[in-house]
Design a protein that fits this description.
The structure holds two protein chains of two kinds.
Chain A lengths: L2 H9 L4 H22 L9 H11 L10 H20 L14 H22 L3 H32 L4 H10 L3 H4 L1 H14 L11 H4 L9 H26 L12 H29 L5 H32 L1
Helix pairs in contact in A: 2-11, 2-12, 3-11, 4-5, 4-11, 5-6, 6-9, 6-13, 7-11, 9-11, 9-12, 11-12
Chain B lengths: L2 E6 L11 E7 L2 E8 L7 H6 L3 H9 L6 H16 L5 H29 L3 H22 L8 E2 L2 E2 L5 H27 L1 H7 L7 H6 L4 H5 L7 H4 L20 H24 L17 E9 L2 E9 L5 E7 L1 H13 L7 H7 L12 E2 L6 E2 L3 H9 L10
Antiparallel strand pairs in B: 1-2, 2-3, 4-5, 6-7, 7-8, 9-10
Helix pairs in contact in B: 2-3, 4-5, 4-11, 4-13, 5-6, 6-11
């Protein structure tokens, strides 16, 4: 891939520009689906974009005694991390930046927004923000482990730590959602928890701690942090779609290159929208659980189930390789 | 983690009205809390002393938006007792119908709010949608959705026509279906169960000790309901039963309210079917003879008490309103200790607090520490300030 095309890939399509637009679209769809399920009208199409522009234009308020620069930088760091993670996820075919171990990099980078939220909460010098930050980090320690285990099992079976290789393996064999249904479910739950959506919106529980770490975020800080979480939703959906649903590749070879790109892109859209639909349904169908209850569920059931999945995969690997 | 002080209120997303909990937490557990009410004193009791019996009824309807019928009924019931008049059967039945419709929409509202407090917004949206049906019924019957304005001393102001009754029956069918559905939903939903069960528990003894009333008390096994124990309106003639539960927690309060919604629906249906013919009001004297009346009423939130003293004029000499939320605060404050901080909203919401009705002031003389009584003019001066001296308050 020549340099110009790579720059286009990274910056425009399916890179950053598309990522921003698609995250607005997913947020719109998420809110619209939830609204229709709750018998509401829901937002108009441009609402997420309008919200973004509006909050971007609002005054930035610094709480007393706050490290301004750190608070300014925090959303940008989170945003950069998520955008970088997105580049390694296959969108229209194998990612041109793929390398051995990019799965670990993506998982690591996707963890950063949560840590940043904790830092923001801590920096805000506000009791609600601090509590929200502490909760965010507590919750992270609960769901991250099963989430990582669930996403690592496909890598074990495919024999590669590259997401693009895992997609290629599924092209030749079968979707991991079929081979590892337990892992798929855990990955969906983990993604829901990572994005802090109901029932895992414990860190930003509106009725308990106002907005958690978000309480003191205003103006462009709020806009960028919000966009970051939307982008994390796109990246997370794309990641799960790639690792468990075969990503953008088809089992058949499509001859003209441009047609393969279009088909791959449409597959990507269909699969991410499907995952979003599941996430939105979970959001609508549940209420918030308490952090101690999440602790129970996370470590007792999710982590054990993920370990069982790993055991099954090891056995399957042994049998297949043995044969 | 050291102890942290969290101010919940007077402005907080969980609270729709101003109240302040100064909560001390250790990690996620509540160590102690201090309750501060009365951020919004409106001087209604005082204002009531300045209005005659006709004008005071609309004022009392505005004590609380949800219980607008409860307050007016309690008052006119007391005044009618003081005047020693009997109001016609038909008026009694119409008052009962409105009262029970009010209870149904209040409980539906509560179910939505309780779900919202634990982040379950779907149930919140659905119950509030169906609450519209009841408000439509109330609008058809009384002409108003919130402040019905149907009560007057001596009867009711509007009659029910056969077509209104027929429309009400149709609405009731739909409501019955929805109530059953919510019952099933709540009882089968794991998420509600883990958030409601064992939360904000107090025993029957504690409920009695702290003077808890209404569904909150009945959920702790206190078999007490003014509608049965001191029947008023048409309750003595209508077949219905008091719903109690022994869980004593938020879950129990949910079950009690769900049961009461069904009972209310039955009462409304019975009253509509057996609506006696006749006039809807009787002429009443302008003044009430000197007497002291304690008028009790089972509002959706619990026992509502109006103490009325009349003095042979067309105004009350003293009106003292004890709202159910006032009676329930202490038990909430007690049951919050040792609970999880995440459970504060739902435990507070479980008594269905109505804060605007609970605001009270006592004026203390700074040096002497003596409690006193404010005159209407003092109150006006305090409320309107120096600049608004000329503003008319009638």
């Amino acid at each position: 891939m020549n340099a110009l095309l790579l720059a286009f890939y990274i910056l425009v399509f399916p890179g950053f520009l598309f990522l921003i637009l698609y995250s607005f679209f997913l947020e719109y769809l998420d809110r619209k689906i939830a609204a229709r399920m709750q018998h509401r009208v829901g937002p108009p199409f441009v609402q997420p974009f309008a919200d973004f522009i509006k909050t971007l234009a609002k005054e930035v308020i610094d709480p007393k005694g706050v490290d301004r620069k750190a608070l300014d930088a925090a959303p940008l760091i989170a945003m950069a991390a998520v955008m970088t993670a997105y580049l390694y996820v296959p969108i229209i075919g194998r990612s041109p930046l793929a390398f051995q171990g990019d799965l670990v990099v993506v998982l690591y980078l996707l963890t950063l927004p949560t840590i940043i939220l904790f830092v923001v909460g801590w920096l805000s010098r506000n009791i609600f923000a601090t509590m929200g930050g502490v909760r965010a980090v507590t919750q992270m320690f609960i769901y991250e482990v099963p989430f990582f285990l669930a996403l690592i099992t496909p890598a074990m079976m495919a024999g590669s730590w590259s997401i693009s290789d895992i997609v290629t393996w599924q092209q030749q064999n079968m979707w991991f959602a079929v081979l590892q249904p337990i892992g798929f479910i855990i990955a969906l739950i983990g993604l829901q928890a990572k994005l802090e959506r109901t029932p895992f919106d414990i860190p930003e529980a509106e009725t308990e701690i106002v907005a958690g770490p978000w309480t003191e975020l205003t103006g462009r800080r709020l806009a960028l942090m919000h966009l970051t979480i939307d982008m994390a939703m796109v990246t997370g959906c794309a990641l799960v779609a790639a690792v468990f649903l075969g990503g953008p590749l088809t089992p058949w070879v499509i001859t003209p290159g441009w047609l393969a790109v279009i088909v791959g892109f449409l597959l990507f859209l269909a699969k991410t929208l499907f995952i979003l639909l599941i996430l939105a349904t979970i959001k609508v169908a549940t209420g918030r659980i308490r952090i101690d209850q999440l602790n129970d569920i996370g470590w007792k059931y999710l982590a054990s189930a993920a370990l069982i999945q790993i055991g099954i995969v090891l056995m399957m690997n042994y049998l297949w390789v043995g044969a | 983690m050291p102890e942290v002080h969290i101010p919940i209120g007077p402005q907080h997303p969980a609270l729709k009205e101003p109240v302040n909990f100064k909560v001390v937490v250790d990690g996620e557990k509540i160590v102690s809390l201090d309750l501060d009410i009365s951020y919004n004193h409106r001087g209604i009791e005082k204002a009531a002393e300045k209005r005659d019996f006709i004008k005071v009824v609309p004022l009392l309807a505005r004590v609380c938006g949800i219980c607008s019928h409860s307050h007016t009924t309690t008052f006119v019931k007391g005044i009618e007792e003081a005047m020693k008049i009997e109001i016609p059967e038909r008026a009694q039945y119409i008052r009962t119908i409105i009262a029970e419709l009010e209870r149904m929409h209040s409980h539906l509202l509560w179910l939505g709010v309780a779900a919202h407090e634990i982040g379950f917004n779907t149930l919140f949206m659905w119950t509030w949608r169906d609450r519209e049906t009841i408000q439509d019924m109330l609008e058809e019957m009384t002409g108003n959705r919130v402040v019905y304005g149907i009560n007057e001393v001596g009867g009711v102001r509007r009659d029910l026509t056969p077509s209104q009754i027929q429309a009400a029956f149709n609405h009731l069918l739909k409501l019955e279906d929805r109530f059953s559905k919510y019952g099933e939903m709540v009882k089968s939903d794991q998420n509600l169960q883990i958030r409601f069960r064992g939360v904000g528990k107090f025993t029957r003894e504690e409920a009695l000790k702290y003077g808890t009333v209404g569904p909150t008390a009945r959920a702790s096994g206190v078999d007490y309901d003014i509608r049965r124990d001191e029947p008023y309106l048409a309750y003595a003639e209508v077949p219905w039963k008091v719903i109690t539960d022994t869980h004593g927690d938020v879950w129990g309060r949910t079950l009690v309210r769900l049961g009461e919604m069904h009972e209310s629906l039955k009462i409304v249906r019975y009253c509509l079917e057996n609506l006696p013919a006749g006039p809807i009001s009787v002429p009443v004297p302008k003044t009430a003879p000197p007497s002291e009346i304690l008028s009790r009423y089972e509002a959706p939130r619990g026992e509502l008490v109006h103490f009325i003293r009349t003095n042979n004029t067309d105004k009350v000499e003293r009106l003292d309103i004890r709202t159910p939320t006032m009676a329930n605060w202490t038990s909430v404050a007690v049951s919050l200790v040792n609970q999880n901080i995440a459970d504060i909203p739902v435990i507070v919401a479980a008594i269905d607090p109505c804060l605007s009705c609970t605001s009270r002031i006592t004026v203390l003389n700074g040096r002497g520490g003596k409690a006193g009584v404010m005159t209407w003019d003092d109150l006006r001066k305090r409320g309107c300030g120096k600049n608004n001296k000329g503003r008319s308050v009638s």
